[in-house]
Amino acid sequence: MNKLQELTDKLYNEGLSKGQQDAEIVLNQAKSEADKILSEAKNKASEIEIAAKKQAAETKANAEAEIKLAGKQIIGEVKQTVENLILTKAISPDIKHAFDDTAFVRTLITTATERFNPHDSGNVNLFMIVPEGQKNAIAEYLAGKVSPALSLMEISEDSRMKSGFKIGSKDDGYYISFTSEDFENLFKTYLRPKVSEILFG
Questions:
Q1: Domains in the chain and their CATH numbers?
Q2: Residue 157 and residue 165: Cα distance in Å, rounded?
Q3: What is the 3-state secondary structure (H, E, C) of the chain?
Q4: Average pLDDT score, the chain
Q5: pTM higher than 0.90 for the full model?
Q6: Which pLDDT tens digit goes with each residue over 118-145?
Q7: d(Cα 91, Cα 179) in Å, to the nearest integer?
Q8: Does 148 score more than 70 pLDDT?
Q9: Phi, psi at residue 126, to the nearest 5°?
Q10: Distance between alpha carbon 177 and the CA centroid of its chain, in Å?
Q11: Residue 71 to residue 63: CA distance in whole angstroms
Q12: Which is it for the CA torsion 160, 164, 165, 166, positive or negative?
């Protein structure tokens, strides 16, 4: 009976010991796996945080760059508007007054028609465009002022033109415009840098 008891106890103790060892191995493996999962989670969280900070910094930098660019554009537009207002106020009234002066416009027409000969030859096939309602008066004026060949040029009217005239060569397919808007733009081109320097340094 003692032998049986001893054997039973031995088997029990060995089984218990083995069970404890197996349990300890499983527990250690579980702890190791948990530590690994926790470490990976911390690393992933750190990567996400770094990426989020980088994205936030890039977004901020882009927003600042766009704001600066928009600011420069607005300043540029305001400067240009101020320049245009000053130039228009300074130039437009005098130019409009000049183009309202029939004698001035006729002098321009005479000079342009007499000098408009790009090939320096006697045969110049010119055309002229004038504001609506001025064709007959200009044709009559030119008849007694320019050479017979030029006085026969084709004159047409354009209802969109407010002042001045356009003169061109039919053979070469181009024209030169002498309107108040053209003179205004010409003067603005030359005066704008000076006005800008005076206003903005």
A1: 96-200 (3.30.2320.30)
A2: 9
A3: CHHHHHHHHHHHHHHHHHHHHHHHHHHHHHHHHHHHHHHHHHHHHHHHHHHHHHHHHHHHHHHHHHHHHHHHHHHHHHHHHHHHHHHHHHHHHHHHHHHHCHHHHHHHHHHHHHHCCCCCCCCCCEEEEEECCCHHHHHHHHHCCCCHHHHCCEEEEECCCCCCEEEEECCCCEEEEECHHHHHHHHHHHHHHHHHHHHHC
A4: 80
A5: no
A6: 555 456 678 888 999 988 888 888 877 7
A7: 14
A8: no
A9: -95, 160
A10: 29
A11: 12
A12: negative
> Contact 128/164 with Cβ under 8 angstroms?
no
Encode pLDDT of 42-93 as tens digits: 888 888 888 888 888 888 888 888 898 888 888 888 878 887 788 778 788 8
**Tokens 């017979």 belong to which residue?**
148
Structure token pair of residue 126: 């010119």
